[in-house]
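Weekly modeling sync, notes
Attendees: S.R. (lead), two postdocs, one rotation student

Agenda item 3: backlog of single-chain predictions. S.R. asked that every request posted to the team notebook include the full sequence so nobody has to chase files. The rotation student volunteered to paste the first one in as an example of the format we agreed on. Action items at the bottom.

Example entry:
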Amino acid sequence: MTMPTCWPLLPFMANWKTIFQNAVPRPSAPTKVKYNEVSSLFWSAVHNTLSGNGTAAENLEVLEADLSDLKGDAR
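Predicted structure, as returned to the notebook:
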């Protein structure tokens, strides 16, 4: 069933067309089994910034390094 075919059955779906067209996969798709670790690192970076423990730029730099380490990228 294509999206236009289902609209008569679920009329509210037409309102979501733009959302579906611009959707991106959850981070779990590219991170696979490391999703929990990635999520924790991201949460910590945001928490530290909002708590005043470093600037956003500093915490993003740390996050980038931590994610590279997790991924196994050589720097």
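Discussion: group reviewed the output briefly. Residues 32-75 form one domain.
Action items: rotation student to repeat for the remaining queue; S.R. to check formatting next week.
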